[in-house]
Amino acid sequence: SECDIQLPSEKVSRHHTTIARTPDGAFYIEDRSTNGTRVNAEMVHEKKILAPGDRIYINDGFILLKVPSH
């Protein structure tokens, strides 16, 4: 599989969204779906930097971003 995280929903495409790190270690999200992705209550339309505790909503489920302390 190409995906690191798979959600058990037929409403989620295999390449729905990308969560990655910038060179300085911050996480960002980039929506790739036609149905959309939300961070907290805000739709993602372009790359968005994520903060610890952000909720990433993908259709009827969500992912909670937890970042380990250094």
Number of strands: 7
Strand content: 25-35%
Q: Whole-number radius of gyration? A: 12 Å
Q: Tell me roughly what share of residues is in helical segments.
A: under 10%
Q: Globular, elongated, flat, extended or rod-shaped: what is the shape?
A: globular
Written as H for each helix and E for each strand, in order along the chain, the element string is EEEEEEE
Strands ordered across the widest β-sheet? 4-3-6-7
Largest sheet: 4 strands, antiparallel
Helix/strand-derived category reads: mainly beta
Termini separation = 31 Å
**What value does the average pLDDT take?**
79
Q: How many alpha or pi helices? A: 0
Query: Uncertain segments of ≥5 residues (pLDDT<50)?
Result: none
Tell me what the structure shows.
The chain is mostly beta strands. 0% of the residues lie in helices and 34% in strands. It contains no helices and seven strands. A four-stranded antiparallel β-sheet has the order 4-3-6-7, with no helix packed on it. A hairpin with a 2-residue loop joins strand 6 and strand 7. It is globular, with a radius of gyration of 12 Å.
